[in-house]
Every structure is written in C-alpha cells, then in structure tokens.
Design brief:
binds iron/sulfur cluster; globular; 9-stranded mixed β-sheet; 430 residues; single chain; Arc Repressor Mutant, subunit A; 17 helices; alpha/beta; binds S-adenosylmethionine; 18 strands; 2 domains; 4-stranded antiparallel β-sheet; pyruvate-formate lyase- activating enzyme
C-alpha cells in the first residue's frame, strides 16, 4: 500500500473519534432541569436493543505523559473508597429504572484510567453488583482495562471468578527505550510473562493496545512490535495513532504523514495475516471467534451506552451525556444516577436513521439494506469516497478499503457534516 502525499483525500488527518463527530448538530440542554429530563428518559423502556454498559475508573498508579484520558494518580485512599461506594450505589439507582430493566446489556466495559489500579476486592464488588442488579445477556462480555504492572495471578483469579472474561491491556510498544521515554513501567520480557499469567489464569480473551507515531519510533522498531504480537497468546490488538492532547501538552505528536501511513500499513498487513484473525474495526484486529469484542463492535453499530463514573460519556436514543470529570464533584452526586450528567445534548430523531452511516466509518461496513436506505442522502459523499479509493462496493454493501481505515475519522467527519446539513434543512447538494 502506498500513499501519494501530493494527492491526499483530506488536508489534515483526524485521529480521534471526538474530532470525527464534532460537526453533528447536537443541542445542549440547560443545566437546570437536566436531571429531570434524564430521569424521564430512564423512565421509558429501551428503543435500541443494542446496549452496552461502561464504567469509568479514572485512577492510575502513575500517569503517562502521552495519555489523553481523564485519569488521576495518587489520590488519597478515602477518595477511592468513596468512589467505589458511589459507583455501586449508582448501579443500584440506575438498575431501578425501566430503561435499564427493559432489555439485556450485551457487553460491560471497565475503562479508565486503569480499573485495576483500585484494590481488586473493590473491583470485584463492582462486578458483583452489576451481575446482581443489571440485566445481562447470556454470555455477556465483561472487559476490564488494565496495565502490565497491575497484573498478578491473584488479580486474574479474582476477576475470572467474578465473571470477567476479557482483558484489554495497554502495552503501547514493546521497545524498551521508547517505553522508558514514555515513563511506562515494565520491559518487553515482563509484558510477555504477564500476558501468559492472564492466559493461564483463566481469561483467554486478551486484547492489547499499541500506539504508532510515538517519538523515536521507526519502521524497524514498529515491525519488531508487530512480530511480538504474533508470538503472544493474545486474541486481539488495537492499533491507535498517537493523538495530541487538546492543550498541546504531553508527548510530541509531530509526525510525517508518509511515515504514519507506513506504520499503519505495516500493522494492517501483519495483523490481518495472523492465522484466524480478521479486522474488526478501523483500529482493531482479532481472532474471528476467540477474539470476540462485543463492546467494540457494539460501538461501531451505534449501540446505546449507559455510562457511569467521573468523566464518562453515554448515549440513550437521541441524547448524549457526559458526567462530571472532577472526581470530588462527581462524588457529590452520591447515589442518584439521574443527577450525574454534567452536560447533556440532544439531536433530531431523524439522526437515529442517518447515523447508521457510521457503521461504515467506525465499524468497517454498511449493510446492503442501510446502503439502499442512505444512498439518497449520502450518495455524493459515497461517490467521492469511492473515487478516492477509500470505500468500495461489495455484494451490494459498502466497505472501507485499507486506506479508508487510515482516514476513517475523516470519513466520519464527512458523514457528520452531511447529517448536520440535512438536519438543518440544507439539502442543496441533493
Ligand atoms: C484509557 S487507556 C488505558 C490503558 C491502561 N491504563 C494502560 O496504561 O496500560 C486506553 C488506551 O488508550 C490509548 N491512548 C492513550 N493516550 C493516547 C494517545 N495520546 N494517543 C493514542 N492512544 C492513546 C492507549 O493505547 C491506551 O492503552
Ligand atoms: S495510559 Fe493508562 S496508566 Fe498511563 S495515564 Fe493513561 S490510563 Fe493511566
């Protein structure tokens, strides 16, 4: 695969999902009355059968300079204890609502931060309360994000016993020099040992995260990273481009687009060639059966998301909400889940149909049925993306090409802009 930098399909490459959907015409709801509106949504049964549960644990033993997530290190123990109690109380509070009880959740995801940075008995208590109060689908996938230095056989045993069946592990790179410069604990040898600890401890669905475009990363060091992936007992690998922090601080993200594309292409080719693996989303590859990632594919299928915890983002029907990222302020919401949104936005109902187009840019494919339905609105965008070689037609459906995966966030932005025009009544292009 080659990229002709003289003929790039977009001027700037978008790398984060928030950049990609920023053109959507969401209307912010006034702070006063927000809890009442949220409660009234939760009082209705679910409209979307695809439902995910996300729990944000914003703590880390040590923070990394490059990380863009809402996370805190070294908070006093009593804050963590109150946080765990608040999350459990909010699970109970959310579970009392008709929206939560009306359909089963297909996947649960503990993200962070580093959920395993809290004592394992507390994490297990949260998993137990989900099992007790929230309706979960048969074989529900329960994923916990973790970091190498937290992994021990006793942790894996307690998580497996509680019902956790998937671990998502931040590795970023196996290159010890780059790891050191990022302030990452553990070396490549320890990473391999800890991954075996997880697999032998009874959690066989293990996905690791790698980042490309890190300072001093070369095609050689990246190729070595990809070789390591092939040798480890893992079922999946997510590959992210390094994203800069909104305030420009942290790890430098200056990278030549040709090098960035070469790194992406090397990962795409190698990970697709692993026996039994396939591409799951523009950034994720995994074993087609053992590497099930219901949470990840649910995201790409526009699932509703019940999100709990400080700095979590969820969506229900036509509403999107964000909870307070400040832990102490978040703790002020105590047990009432309906009071947790700090920001809430809504969008026209028509969005629910139009947003199926994101199954192409965030999930790889637009089904034959949705392609037929959405052609009238997105026809000129599909034509442009086809001309650029970013998408192609196959069995009367649409699919992202490998180059399209590299530009996936820009493609989402094209769709978001079109949706914005349609919802605001500007249909001049059609
Ligand atoms: C919320 S973090 C949790 C990872 C886990 N705490 C760890 O450190 O191993 C999830 C993933 O986001 C990715 N990530 C964080 N900051 C990033 C950035 N600036 N650019 C790209 N990916 C990033 C990393 O791959 C990371 O593993
Ligand atoms: S990468 Fe993981 S450990 Fe590092 S700051 Fe982010 S969430 Fe914490």
């Amino acid at each position: 695969m080659m990229l002709n930098s003289m003929e790039l399909p977009f001027k700037t490459r978008f790398k984060s999902p928030t950049q990609a959907r920023r053109a959507l015409p969401f209307r912010p709801l006034p702070a006063s009355g927000m809890a009442k509106i949220f409660q009234s949504i939760l009082n209705q049964p679910a409209q979307n059968p695809e439902r995910l549960l996300y729990i944000h644990i914003p703590f880390c033993s040590k923070t990394c300079s490059f990380c863009i997530y809402n996370r805190y290190a070294n908070l006093p123990e009593h804050i963590i204890t109150s946080y765990v109690e608040t999350i459990i109380n909010q699970i109970r509070s959310a579970a009392k609502t008709p929206w939560v009880q009306s359909a089963p959740f297909k996947a649960v995801y503990f993200g962070g931060g580093t959920p395993t940075a809290i004592p394992s008995k507390d994490l297990v208590r949260i998993v137990d309360s989900i099992n007790q109060y929230i309706p979960l689908a048969n074989g529900c996938e329960i994923t916990v994000e973790s970091t190498i230095s937290n992994i021990s056989s006793s942790l894996v045993k307690s998580l497996a016993e509680a019902g956790v069946n998937r671990i998502s592990l931040g590795v970023q790179t196996f290159d010890n020099t780059i790891r050191e410069s990022l302030g990452r604990e553990s070396n490549s040898e320890t990473i391999a040992t800890k991954i075996r600890t997880i697999s032998q401890g009874g959690i066989s669905n293990i996905c690791i995260d790698l980042i490309y475009g890190l300072p001093n990363q070369t095609i050689e060091s990246w190729t070595a990273d990809l070789e390591m992936v092939q040798q480890l007992p893992i079922t999946g690998c997510s590959v992210y481009p390094l994203v800069s922090k909104p305030n420009g601080q942290g790890t430098s993200t200056e990278i030549d687009i040709d090098l960035e594309y070469k790194l992406f292409a090397a990962a795409h080719t190698t990970l697709n060639s692993i026996n039994g693996w396939q591409q799951l989303t523009p950034v994720q590859y995994g074993h087609s059966t053992n590497g099930k990632a219901i949470y990840v594919s649910g995201h790409g299928q526009n699932a509703d998301m019940l999100a709990l915890g400080a700095g979590a983002g969820g969506r229900i029907n036509t509403h999107t909400y964000f909870t307070n990222p400040n832990v102490e302020e978040f703790l002020g919401c105590k047990a009432n889940f309906a009071q947790t949104p700090k920001i809430m936005m809504s969008i026209d109902k028509e969005f629910l149909n139009l947003s199926k187009v994101f199954t192409l840019s965030e999930g790889l494919r637009l089904s034959k049925q949705n392609y037929q339905k959405l052609k009238g609105v997105f026809g000129s965008d599909f034509d442009y993306l086809k001309e650029q070689g970013l998408i192609f037609e196959i069995n009367e459906s649409l699919q992202l090409s490998p180059t399209g995966c590299f530009w996936a966030a820009n493609i989402s932005d094209v769709f978001a802009q079109r949706i914005g025009k349609v919802l605001q009544g500007d249909t001049a292009n059609h």
